[in-house]
Write a structure and sequence with these properties.
Structural class: mainly alpha
């Protein structure tokens, strides 16, 4: 069994390593980012990762020719709304919040965009600054979560560890294009790790405000409550396998459930399960998505088999949560906008458990090395997002030029 990590430990810094990171960052933040992957679990590497995320956000470029394009592209939609928002004063913001909590109709469904837009407008009307601010929030929670992984004594900067890091971080900075869900996902991961792994009950507050970032995170309420109050291991193992075998029926159950949900939730569910959306997603993505689902579940079943041995209480809590979480995610998987999105979060917990339970020296690590083949669709989407919203100059340009050209 892998030893539970000592909290708040960094790999000892090497002075020359820090100098190289600074020098390469002055030449190109991207080169410094790549070099920092050599020794991920150092404080200086995390600083580079954070600064690169801010540069990425600032350089995030959205071009659209007309309103139709704005409305059918998430990143374009956020630029359009930021540049056309009417929330400029404290009075405007208070009025918006009042309408939001009274469920008065508004096209902005969550508080996050309105709050971020309101704050950024005090500084600048430049949409690049808006996306840099979004990157700041996103990368803060991503790196705070990532710290849990690299602090494990099993983490040794080996190739397999880098691959586990990739699995953990599939929700990349490129996803600021979808803004709300991607950010809420990392807030969710951080809250769960603090609440269940570090036993810090105060982080329940963070978990319960997630729907203010994205409504879909009402989904987390039953998972957290079941993890806290119903831990029958045998029941959840049977539920997990049941969810894999019978997930195809969930689409009908979810549609019927809309009759018993509040309007702000039923509208979201109806949008996710409308026939045209379901058919479009299933026809174009079924094969690669199925490979992804099978891969995730194979990894988790191997972890499940390993848990027959002794588990430290902290790791056991994370395993129990992931078992319940994946049972529900598998069941709603036929709804891509729900199951598919939350599957990316489950991969974070699978990566965390793999490192802390399976370790870096086991015969099944071949599956970790083969991960890019099984998750090729997700890696393709990340690559295309980078190409779509970034100029190639970000790969080799110094930070001063990047900053001055986007402010």
């Amino acid at each position: 069994m892998i030893e539970v990590y000592k909290e708040n430990t960094w790999l000892k810094e090497d002075s020359m390593d820090i100098v190289i990171k600074i020098m390469t960052f002055m030449i190109s933040p991207f080169i410094s980012f790549l070099y920092s992957l050599k020794r991920i679990n150092t404080r200086s590497s995390f600083v580079v990762f954070f600064l690169f995320a801010l540069i990425y956000g600032l350089c995030f470029t959205v071009i659209a020719d007309n309103l139709d394009v704005w409305e059918h592209n998430d990143a374009a939609k956020w630029r359009f709304r930021f540049e056309n928002t009417n929330i400029y004063t404290i009075s405007d913001y208070v009025d918006f919040c009042s309408e939001y909590f009274l469920f008065i109709g508004t096209e902005i469904h969550d508080l996050y965009f309105a709050t971020l837009s309101f704050v950024v407008h005090f500084v600048s009307d430049n949409y690049h600054v808006f996306f840099m601010s979004a990157a700041l929030v996103f990368s803060y929670f991503q790196l705070k979560s990532f710290r849990f992984l690299v602090d494990s004594p099993a983490f040794d900067n080996s190739i397999v560890c880098l691959m586990i890091c990739m699995l953990f971080s599939l929700n990349t900075i490129a996803n600021i294009s979808v803004l709300r869900f991607a950010t809420a996902a990392w807030m969710c991961v951080y809250g769960v790790l603090q609440f269940l792994y570090n036993r810090k009950v105060v982080y329940m507050v963070l978990l319960f405000v997630l729907p203010l970032i994205h409504r879909a995170f009402f989904f987390m309420y039953p998972v957290i409550l079941l993890t806290s109050f119903y831990r029958d291991k045998s029941f959840w193992k049977y539920s997990y396998f049941f969810s894999v075998l019978f997930s195809g029926f969930s689409i009908y159950i979810i549609r019927d459930a809309t009759n018993y949900l509040p309007s702000f939730l039923s509208g979201m569910i109806e949008a996710y399960t409308v026939e045209t959306t379901f058919e479009r997603n299933s026809l174009t993505k079924t094969f690669l998505t199925s490979i992804n689902i099978i891969y995730d579940n194979v990894l988790f079943i191997l972890i499940m088999n390993k848990t027959k041995t002794y588990l430290p209480e902290k790791v056991k809590s994370m395993y129990q949560f992931t078992l319940i979480f994946m049972s529900i995610v598998n069941f709603v998987m036929p709804v891509p906008s729900l199951g598919g999105r939350f599957a990316t979060i489950s991969e974070v917990f699978i990566a965390f458990l793999w490192l802390n339970i399976m370790g870096t020296k086991n015969k099944y690590n071949i599956l970790i090395y083969l991960m890019p083949l099984f998750l090729i669709r997700k890696l393709y989407i990340v690559s295309m997002t980078l190409v779509k919203f970034q100029d190639i100059s970000i790969l080799y340009t110094n930070p001063f030029t990047l900053i001055s050209s986007h402010l």
